[in-house]
Amino acid sequence: MATSAALVVSAGAAANGPDKGIAFDNAYETRSAESLSGLLAMKLANLAEIDPDHPLASNRATQTLSMFGREDLIASSSKNYAATHCAALMPTADVLDEIARRARQTSIVIVNESHERSEGRGFTTMLAARLRPLGYDALALEALQNDPPTTPKQYRSPFVRQPDLPYFDDDDGFYLGEAAFGRMGRRAKALGYRLVSYEANPNDGLPSGATLAQRIAVREEEQAANLAAFLKEHPGTKLLVHVGYQHVLEVPRADGSKWMAALLKQKTGIDPLTISQTDCRGGGEADRLAVLPADQPPGSFDLVVDHPPARFDRGRPVWREKAGDRPVSVPAALRPSVGWRVIEARPLDEPATSVPMDRVAIRPKEDVALMLPPGRYRLRAINVTWSNPKAVKSTR
Q: What is the reported pLDDT for 18?
């Protein structure tokens, strides 16, 4: 039964075998989506608009399903998964070795991601670990909530108010609630990175009735200005910047417009190492460097990373298992009988506001796994009622 308050279900410790080294606490919490608030509630409302039986019929489906761990449902129809047949640039080079070599020649590395494919976040997490010994000590995330400077400290985002937390809070940023993004935050904090928010205020500098091109120009200018100001205030900092899609472009477009990387280069005089993860896909069985696609102007970015074809096992991306996660069955007591149910797994000592180690939306009769490193976890289930008025309203 979905309730506005927490319902604790005693189901016994769910050990998953000594070979996996993963166990669940003996009490599971169940919540209704309507009882939650903040950014997580907004994302759950988006999920509620997606028909569980026909998930791709919704315009919001691709990014929302990816955010809730269900890339397997969108991979066949999303262009972010389609093979691009890019030629290999350096077939035998280790990708991280080459990036590290070039990163020594600058103090800014900018890498992009697709908002629909979590593997890019996993790659940036590995990159952050590789760059830390080279002196890179600040991680700027476009996805971090950037509170206006006039916001009183007690109302600022949790990562600002409590910088020593070892995890992201769900209210630190809209995209950060996705598990791989949460893992990036955990790893960066453990490595000692300073987190930097730099997103533009959507209302700054925009004339009434602004065009899309004007909106993009204002946003890129403010993002670059925010990062340039941070670097000026922190001389000697080496900066890793994780962005979405086109913000990594470091040369003007054919129409003369400039995206964030190009503007940051102009403002600081620093030539950044720019890396695209969104232009080439499916070229081989391992990460490789690819030739710049012909549809991109020369110099658009310095390196192009070509990830292998996306593969899934029990509904989850295989790259996570290669990164150290282990597939674990959702306990029978938490599987839904109707609609969506979001399953979360957190370390025992963390509050329900932390971005969990895993978060996945499941439907009835699905054998979708949780992906977790060894440890002991507390599980929470969130019932999400499909918002179509003709849908069945009851949830188990």
A: 42
